[in-house]
Each structure stands twice: as structure tokens, then as C-alpha cells.
Design a protein that fits this description.
Blueprint (H helix, E strand, L loop, with lengths): L2 H20 L3 H6 L1 E9 L2 E4 L1 H8 L7 E14 L2 E16 L2 E18 L2 E18 L6
Parallel strand pairs: 1-6
Antiparallel strand pairs: 1-2, 3-4, 4-5, 5-6
Length: about 140
């Protein structure tokens, strides 16, 4: 597999993470990580894939989320890789009868390993660069 092919596979992996989280597809999410993976961010650290899935269930208090993956720069060294990925994550929720939208400007710093030809996340660190929380303008379905 060429370096470009590996980098494309890594980009697809981080997009699959966003899709699994937004669709609350915890089985798909679990398949993206190694069993001993770590996911950490401001105020949380989940060690192991079971803890990651349990922790991500906390998104249930949002009616909808959308993670928009942007810049993704990966470095590949044989069967290991690292990347920094920019993301804007939108979270809709209700408070006092008002639908609100919490937006996060995120940078993920990731470590990956390729096992049997498939890339998996071994470590994901969520760095929160900014946030805003405003009443939603327009209809939310």
C-alpha cells in the first residue's frame, strides 16, 4: 500500500469516527479502536475500548450531533501513524424549552496502528480550541 493510500485510509477512519458518534453506532465506534486505546479530552479520560464506548454514551443528552472533519495531516511510518485533525462539532440540546446549539472547535491529536491491513486508533486526544453556546436559529428536527 502506498503512503497516499495509507493517508486516505486514515482520513476515512477519522470520518468513520465522526459518523459513528453522530449516529450513536457504538458497535461501529468500538471497531475503530484497539482494545487498549485511550480517548482523552478536557475533563475526561477513557482507557480501553469499553470505557470509550461507555463514555461516548454521555452524548445521549444531546438530541443531535454533527462532527465536521476538516484539515487532516497524517504522518505514516510503516504500521504506525500520527495525525492532527481539525473538527467543528455541533451539539443540539434543549434547555428551559429553548433548543440550543453548542459548537466546539476541536483539534484531535491521534496515534494509529495498522493491524491485518486495517488502521485503528490507539490514542485520541481532544483539544478544545474554542466553544460557543447559543439559541438555535431555525427549526431543528
Amino acid at each position: 500500500m502506498s503512503e497516499a493510500s495509507h493517508k486516505q485510509a486514515l482520513y476515512e477512519l477519522v470520518c468513520r469516527y465522526a459518523q459513528a458518534v453522530d449516529q450513536r453506532d457504538w458497535a461501529a465506534l468500538a471497531r475503530l479502536f484497539t482494545p487498549d486505546a485511550v480517548l482523552k479530552g478536557p475533563g475526561f479520560s477513557f482507557n480501553g475500548v469499553a470505557a470509550i464506548v461507555d463514555g461516548m454514551n454521555g452524548l445521549g443528552h444531546y438530541s443531535v450531533t454533527q462532527h465536521h472533519v476538516h484539515n487532516h495531516l497524517a504522518e505514516v511510518e510503516e504500521l504506525e501513524a500520527s495525525a492532527e485533525t481539525y473538527c467543528v462539532a455541533n451539539h443540539l440540546y434543549d434547555a428551559d424549552g429553548v433548543t440550543r446549539k453548542l459548537d466546539w472547535g476541536i483539534r484531535y491529536r491521534d496515534r494509529f496502528v495498522c493491524i491485518d491491513g486495517l488502521w485503528h486508533i490507539t490514542q485520541r486526544e481532544l483539544l478544545l480550541d474554542w466553544s460557543q453556546d447559543l439559541p438555535l436559529q431555525g427549526a431543528a428536527q
